[in-house]
Design brief:
Elements: H1 28-31, E1 34-40, H2 49-59, E2 63-66, H3 75-82, E3 88-90, H4 110-118, E4 127-130, E5 135-139, H5 153-160, H6 165-176, E6 184-188, H7 219-230, E7 238-241, E8 258-260, E9 266-269, E10 276-278, H8 281-290, E11 300-311, E12 314-326, E13 330-340
Parallel strand pairs: 1-2, 2-3, 5-6, 6-7, 7-9
Antiparallel strand pairs: 1-11, 4-5, 8-9, 10-11, 11-12, 12-13
The structure holds zinc ion.
Zinc ion (ZN) binds near residues 69, 93, 95 and 243.
Organism: Clitoria ternatea
GO molecular function: hydrolase activity
Protein name: Calcineurin-like phosphoesterase domain-containing protein
Length: about 350
């Protein structure tokens, strides 16, 4: 369950590393020792360029990762995300190819338009290096809807030449090879790997169907991670994904959003859905009582991010973070710590 809400009167110490308004890649000297990654989980149309930019300017990440499912082929949202002035990497999800089964030969379909918007920042089967902060992001399979079947086979075959799970695993493995040795490697996928549990509240557990194998992870991602670790001796400190929403179906509570593997790989699910809450009347009244904001100023939203703090090449802290954005104030609304290094 979420911890109690609180209102930070001033900037929380968490956000004090670098004072550049847009931290982006402009703090290389700091970045070598401390890096902040903001994960934006499945968007599902909950995106506002102005408000999310304000929230991110407040959080000052070095890198923003998007786990996909922007909407049902919502090109406008994807274009807005592409316009964001932060270093970023993106993977498209199953909802981003909701209607398009194959690429259109005549006019550009919405999957092509989304891919064009994102360019090289769409990291499917690719590696994107961020040398100033010494981070590399390797993308998994795009359009995944989880489980054993390969979703959107014709798209995968036409664009990436991938026809089955085995080829997909090898493409992910290949993308990771050559990662600079001193870089922190993050795998970014729409859905997590198999092997992390089959209970309905497990990080990739089916919460809508009971009785059968409930592990809804991606077998190719699991295979690729094994190949990289066992054959190529690649260290994978962080795997970030979404798709499996935090709130479980049928009111069954909440999902485990983090797993620390036996070899210290951290698997992080960022799919807090919906990621935006409108500031309710009750909260507005309490703010009025405190004299902090007038009711008109209090009109705003709280927006979810998962923050990953990396220190000296290791994950130091991960927190589900809600940022309140009103007309003239941006504040930390809530922080729930998911992981802290011992
Ligand atoms: Zn999805």
């Amino acid at each position: 369950m979420l911890s109690a809400w609180f209102h930070a009167p001033t900037i929380f110490p968490l956000f004090s590393y670098c004072l550049n308004p847009k931290r982006n890649l402009s703090c290389p000297s700091m970045a070598a020792s401390s890096i902040r990654i903001a994960v934006v989980g499945d968007v599902h149309d909950c995106w506002n360029f102005e408000q999310d930019s304000k929230a991110l300017e407040f959080l000052k990440p070095d890198l923003v990762l998007f786990t996909g499912d922007f909407g049902d082929e919502n090109v406008e949202v994807v274009q807005s995300v592409a316009n964001l002035e932060f270093a970023k990497a993106v993977i498209l999800g199953n909802h981003d190819s909701w209607f398009t089964r194959q690429f259109s030969g005549r006019e550009k379909d919405k999957v092509q338009l989304q891919l064009e918007c994102l360019g090289k920042e769409h990291v499917a089967y690719q590696r994107l290096d961020f040398p100033l902060i010494k981070v590399s992001v390797v993308g998994g399979r795009p359009f995944s809807h989880g489980g054993k079947p390969l979703f959107r086979k014709k798209l995968l075959s036409a664009r990436y030449g991938v026809k089955d799970m085995d080829e997909s695993a090898k493409r992910i493995q290949k993308a990771a090879l050559g990662t600079p040795e001193d870089h922190f490697l993050v795998i970014l996928a729409h859905n997590g790997p198999t092997g992390l549990g089959s209970a309905l509240n497990d990080i990739c557990g089916k919460d809508w169907e009971f009785g059968s194998d409930g592990d809804h992870g991606d077998p190719d991602l699991s295979h690729a991670i094994s190949l990289l670790k066992e054959n190529n001796h690649v260290s994978i400190p962080l795997v970030v994904f979404g798709h499996m929403h935090k709130e479980l179906a049928y009111g069954n509570g909440f999902r485990k959003m983090i797993v620390v593997g036996a070899d210290n790989t951290i698997f992080l699910n960022g799919a807090i859905v919906p990621r935006v809450k409108t500031l309710g009347d009750e909260e507005k009244r309490s703010l009025d009582d405190l004299g902090a904001l007038s009711s008109s100023e209090a009109k705003g939203t709280t927006r979810a991010f998962t923050l990953v703090e990396i220190s000296e090449g290791r994950v130091a802290k991960i927190a589900e973070t809600w940022v309140s954005v009103t007309e003239d104030q941006t504040t930390l609304e809530e922080e729930k710590i998911l992981f802290e290094a011992s």
